[in-house]
Amino acid sequence: MLKVIRQNAGYQQQQVAKLLGHKNSVLISWWEREKSMPSGANLIKLCIIYNKTPRELYPEYYRRLERLFHLY
Predict the structure, then answer these.
(1) pLDDT at residue 72 above 60?
(2) Domains of the chain, with CATH numbers?
(3) Which end of the chain has less neighbouring CB within 10 Å, N or C?
């Protein structure tokens, strides 16, 4: 999902990495392949870059958390 959002926004991985202040696109690749999640600060930055909400960037993760917290 994150890769499609990036591509639809017209960015290459390296461009996003540079905007985030990273030297290379390794982390961007990991996030797009769901090998890891961005930090809170980087998530906010991605939301601004892509003009999306966290729910839009990580819909399945968001749904899992919603289900978890609705149990209480």
Answers:
(1) no
(2) 2-70 (1.10.260.40)
(3) C
